[in-house]
């Protein structure tokens, strides 16, 4: 099991690896690596691409989302209420190694047009309101992105077109308690004039989530 986990981490951290590279990393014979990867593929955790390289599959996203079940449980009600109020999808995004991962996404029940997220999706920390909000909770200096620095004074970040073209992003930093990771609540919108309402509602939801988590 340990080897399988190490193999999975190795594949997930790459842009594609060969069976031989996995074997070399694990210091095992190629046939052992092949069997491990086949078992991971059967569980939909990895797949072999057309180029013959092994990459992470959709099952990884499902595992990542499931890993935060207690946080998701505490946040769902509050995010749903905020989403309904704003008429926009809201995501709980958590620091995972060097990326920002959406572990919970809720959409408004009104059926109005909104920009959707995908649970399990990731993007770099150096782009987008969510990445900057999470980065503001991590050690940084005066050379950090202006939005990272601004988050400390105004309590939120805002961007335009950094992740999704022509879209505005607003995010409120959220440090999860009990040694939990840095996180944020994030909304993406087509208009900038919702900034005040969106930020106030996200901040309220963040406070409610922290109270729920104790």
TrEMBL record:
GO terms of molecular function: DNA binding; DNA-binding transcription factor activity
GO terms for biological process, alphabetical: negative regulation of DNA-templated transcription
Ranges annotated as spanning the membrane: none
Keywords of this entry: Transcription, Transcription regulation
SUPFAM superfamilies cross-referenced by the UniProt entry: GAF domain-like (SSF55781), Winged helix' DNA-binding domain (SSF46785)
Annotated protein name in UniProt: IclR family transcriptional regulator
Upper lineage: Bacteria, Bacillati, Actinomycetota, Actinomycetes, Micrococcales
């Amino acid at each position: 099991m340990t080897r399988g986990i190490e193999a999975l981490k190795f594949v997930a951290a790459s842009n594609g690896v060969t069976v031989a590279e996995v074997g070399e990393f694990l210091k095992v014979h190629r046939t052992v690596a092949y069997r491990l990867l086949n078992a991971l593929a059967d569980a939909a955790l990895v797949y072999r691409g057309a180029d013959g390289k092994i990459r992470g599959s959709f099952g990884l996203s499902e595992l990542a989302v499931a890993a935060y079940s207690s946080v998701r449980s505490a946040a769902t009600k509050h995010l749903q209420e905020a989403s309904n109020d704003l008429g926009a999808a809201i995501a709980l995004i958590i620091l995972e190694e060097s990326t920002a991962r959406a572990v919970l996404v809720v959409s408004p029940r009104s059926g109005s047009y909104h920009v959707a997220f995908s649970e399990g999706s990731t993007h770099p920390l150096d782009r987008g309101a969510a990445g900057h909000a999470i980065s503001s909770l991590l050690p940084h200096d005066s050379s950090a992105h202006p939005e990272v620095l601004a988050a400390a004074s105004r309590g939120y970040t805002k961007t335009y077109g950094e992740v999704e073209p022509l879209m505005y992003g607003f995010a409120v930093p959220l440090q999860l308690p009990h040694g939990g990771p840095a996180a944020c609540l994030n909304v993406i919108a087509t208009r900038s004039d919702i900034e005040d309402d969106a930020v106030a509602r996200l901040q309220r939801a963040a406070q409610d989530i922290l109270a729920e988590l104790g």
